[in-house]
Amino acid sequence: MEEQPHMSTSPESNETAQSVSAEPATAFDLVLRGEQMLTTAGIVAREIGIRDGRVTAIEPLGSGLQGAEVIELASNQVMIPGLVDTHVHVNEPGRTEWEGFESATKAAAAGGVTTLIDMPLNSIPSTVTVEALNIKRRAAAGKTYIDVGFWGGAIPGNEGDLRGLHDEGVFGFKCFLLHSGVDEFPHLTADEMEADMAELAKYDSLMIVHAEDSHAIDHAPTAEGNQYANFLASRPRGAENVAVAEVIERARWTGARAHILHLSSSDALPMIASARRDGVKLTVETCPHYLTLLAEEIPNGATAYKCCPPIREASNRELLWQGLLDGTIDCIVSDHSPSTVDLKDVEGGDFGVAWGGVASLQLGLSLIWTEAKRRGIGLPQVMEWMSAKPAALAGLTNKGRIALGCDADFAIFEPDSAQVVDVRNLHHKNPISPYDGRALAGVVTGTWLRGQKVDFENPRGRMLRRGDV
């Protein structure tokens, strides 16, 4: 969609671009000017005016917009929309030592993320009732440096809680088709998932699914020991493929909207594409670790790389990139799933006992940009996958793009700068990541939320509800 000429976003006014010169010198709270502004028209030379936290003017560079504050971008900088990360495990309350709202939202902001949606498990209590949702919101109050929303959880026996959670503003419901890793969040059978999907279809909510089949994994080899090859064999592609097929068919039968989380098996791409051609309401995400890391390069005992589903082989990675390029995969989100260092069993290096999860919330844009740049994929496409599409998945119509009327959530990015990851310098609560020491392209130099720069001292983030505009 092309950007529109400057106009007031007030419903009472029909101001056009010609009225700008008649406005006082400080017509805008903030004006940004630069040769590289990533709007809905692509990377273009523009002046952007922000008032009351929203984008209210987009004009050609040289138009002379005036504001109380003016930022002139350097020639090596790009103004990009704030990233929207719809898959983050914050873990507070209950496991705040793994990650908390303060550390998670600071890390997100440092990486250019301006909105995240928190997963319902790993906190205690899990977000499976309205009461638990309210407990989580109270835990987050006053600690969020970016905007935060919440997924609800679908577990055995809480079908009666789903509508209440929906009405209280969760963005959809997460379920597992195998053990979640924590006993507080039990998994659904395929039949139970179908029953919940039928319930969610009544009010057009979304079921998001960790799609690995428990029976297939029960028949796979065990993961114990320090051999990454053994761990990979313990979570075979077939377990994902079977579960994805179940999700597709149950969504087909119920008419519900369904979303496949953290796809790692490229084998599932043809059936996903086929289901969509048939009209099944299905969306799919993948994650930076599946697009940047390779099973063949993971050292034995390197449990920082353990995640479920696992990082797979080079040939699989290439097909995931192709799935993004042809539109079969919709978006890229972090699945930031941190834990304490001791739970990763760094000293023992046993993949069978280490916690499964990759910490990458602060690094996602640079990780994907490094790989995309090498492949000749432009920044606008990367931002579509990491900002516009996740915002659309969550129904956040005022997020994920720099356009008239949208929240002024953006970051300044230097795509040609470089960094070397040092986990000790990240805002993540626990200094462990498979990316430690990795050289990356692209640096976020600042992030703005509703037109105000995130200063890491004043938490101005809001708690979002489904339907917020």
Automatic annotation (TrEMBL):
Protein keywords: Hydrolase, Metal-binding, Zinc
Domain of life: Bacteria
Domain (Amidohydrolase-related): residue spans on this chain: 78-454
Biased composition regions of type Polar residues, renumbered to the chain: 1-21
Gene3D superfamilies, per database record: Metal-dependent hydrolases
Named cofactor requirement(s): Zn(2+)
Record carries keyword Nucleus: no
InterPro entries: Allantoinase, Amidohydro-rel, DHOase/Allantoinase_Hydrolase, Metal-dep_hydrolase_composite, Metal_Hydrolase
EC number: 3.5.2.5
First-tier enzyme category under EC: hydrolase
Keyword Electron transport applies: no
Chain intervals for the UniProt region annotation (Disordered): 1-22
Pfam families named among the record's database cross-references: Amidohydro_1
Pathway: Nitrogen metabolism; (S)-allantoin degradation; allantoate from (S)-allantoin: step 1/1
Subunit relationships: Homotetramer.
Similarity section: Belongs to the metallo-dependent hydrolases superfamily. Allantoinase family.
Protein name: allantoinase
